[in-house]
Specification:
With about 170 residues, the protein is α/β, with parallel strands linked by helices. Helix content is about 40%, strand content about 25%. The protein is built from six helices and seven strands, in the order βαβαββαβαββαα. Helix 1 crosses helix 6 (about 150-170).
Length: about 170
């Protein structure tokens, strides 16, 4: 049964992500922590290679987290979208989503790519993409493990909490 339009029943928030240097992982874990504070929402955190169309179909809302690589969605997230797009098409319309992006300097092109995919799925953005810029510009800095600033992690936690609260209230 699709619980999206039935406030007061248990909802599932699916968080699908890829993280190469740990920045995105920290961001989605903070968002998951915030979402988990909502007792009416079950949070599922899946790495992109482990997520399938069935996972999308079983969820009531989504959080997509990724690094921006070479001004684009990270490859494993692109693979996730490629594998699940048509099996989920016309089956998840109207559900809420949000996006977390860990970028070296910009992140906006990856955000636009996710928005185009979500538009095709007819998902509803519940917030602007949350982009954290690490300012990593050299090959060494780009490949180094990331430590996300506590203020940015707090913003991720708040986004997760807001998405979960809206889902539990039936707002999205």
């Amino acid at each position: 049964m699709d619980n999206t339009l039935h406030p007061g029943t248990m909802k599932t928030l699916l968080i699908v992500y890829h993280s190469m240097t740990g920045g995105t992982r920290q961001m989605v874990e903070a968002a998951a922590h915030g979402a988990a504070l909502e007792p009416a929402v079950h949070v599922r955190l899946l790495l992109a290679p482990d997520a399938y169309a069935a996972d999308l179909l079983e969820a009531d809302g989504y959080l997509f987290g990724m690094p921006e690589n070479l001004a684009a969605i990270a490859g494993l997230m692109k693979d996730f979208f490629d594998r699940t797009y048509y099996p989920a098409l016309d089956r998840i319309s109207g559900r809420a989503y949000a996006t977390l992006i860990c970028a070296g300097s910009d992140g906006h092109n990856a955000a636009r790519q996710v928005e185009r995919i979500a538009t095709g799925w007819r998902l509803k953005a519940m917030a602007d993409p949350l982009i954290v810029c690490t300012q990593a510009q050299t090959p060494e800095a780009i490949l180094a493990p990331k430590v996300i600033d506590p203020d940015d992690l707090k913003r991720c936690e708040e986004l997760g909490a807001a998405l979960a609260t809206g889902m539990s209230m039936g707002v999205f």
